[in-house]
Design a protein that fits this description.
Subcellular location: Membrane
Largest sheet: none
Keywords: Membrane, Transmembrane, Transmembrane helix
GO cellular component, one term: endoplasmic reticulum
Number of strands: 0
Strand content: under 5%
Shape: globular
Order of helices and strands: HHHHHH
Protein name: Protein RER1
Organism: Rosa chinensis
């Protein structure tokens, strides 16, 4: 009875140990990349360009690209939406100001920037890997998918922008007043 727990910890399989080490190292580099916003997004742009070049070179995988576009649109909606939507949830605490006299409350996103970046990068990497699976290369007329995606994008962003105007919030730091220390 004494050694039951201690023997199990010592008998870790090499695969489990490798997975644990890899997970720890991956999280370490993710944590180190957090303050480097511009470099992270430039890296994602490079990954996206590699994916686009792959799809262009292969002349296929348009359904995979369409699915990727829908997923990115969904992430974009979460990135532009407030954490607490005044239309859907009763307000228990701080809310978005709706009148000019309301106290300023900072905009808190439903999907933080780091998670947004990580999800988009992971989606492009997975979509790139999917371009090597020939079963997923479904023959479709890609201009129809592209037109449908643009219609979805315009309608969704129109609704989101109207929501921003109605509840008077801006999800960007552009144009917001910045306070500096004493001079």
């Amino acid at each position: 009875m004494e050694g039951i727990g201690s023997d199990r910890a010592a008998e870790t399989s090499p695969v489990a140990q490798w997975k644990s080490d890899f997970s720890r190292a991956f999280q370490y580099y993710l944590d180190r990349s957090t303050p480097h916003t511009l470099q992270r997004w430039l890296g994602t742009l490079v990954v996206a360009m590699i994916y686009i070049l792959r799809v262009y070179y292969v002349q296929g995988f348009y359904v995979v690209s369409y699915g990727l576009g829908i997923y990115v649109l969904n992430l974009l909606i979460g990135f532009f939406s407030p954490k607490v939507d005044p239309e859907l949830e009763p307000l228990d605490g701080p809310s978005l100001p709706t009148k000019g006299a309301d106290e300023f409350k900072p905009f808190v996103r439903r999907l933080p920037e780091f998670k947004f970046w990580y999800s988009i990068t992971k989606a492009f990497v997975i979509a790139f890997i999917m371009t090597f699976i020939s079963v997923l290369d479904v023959p479709v007329f890609w201009p129809i998918l592209l037109c449908y995606w643009f219609v979805l994008f315009v309608l969704t962003m129109k609704r989101q922008i109207l929501h921003m105007i109605k509840y008077k919030y801006v999800p960007f730091d552009i144009g917001k007043q910045r306070y500096t220390g004493k001079k």
